[in-house]
Amino acid sequence: MAQPEYLTLDGTRYSTEKLSDEARNQMINIQAVDAEMARLQQQLAIAQTARNAYVIALRTAVKMSAESTEQVKPKKPRASRKPKSSE
Fold first, then answer.
1. Tens place of pLDDT per residue across the chain (87 aa)
2. Is 6 helix (H, G, I), strand (E, B) or coil?
3. Which of 19, 34, 83, 87 could form a disulfide with 23 if both were Cys (CB 3.0 to 4.6 A apart)?
4. Rounded CA gap, 11 and 3, in Å?
5. One-letter-per-residue 3-state SS of 10-44
């Protein structure tokens, strides 16, 4: 990964050519972490998109299930029986 010509840290601008090896290594570490965070954000966006698709599929499945149970005609209630005469 190419290093920028200048680094601004806490409002102060530094020439990257004049940085110590330790400072350059830390700058490279930050760049690597930034790249990994961007990759993870992209993975999260992919996972969120998949989740949204699953929610839509669930809604469709629930609606279809509800519609199929509504089409089944419920049994007619039985007529009440006449009370037996007590003789």
1. 678 899 999 999 999 999 999 999 999 999 999 999 999 999 999 999 999 999 999 999 999 988 887 765 667 777 777 777 665
2. strand
3. 19
4. 19
5. CCEEEEHHHCCHHHHHHHHHHHHHHHHHHHHHHHH
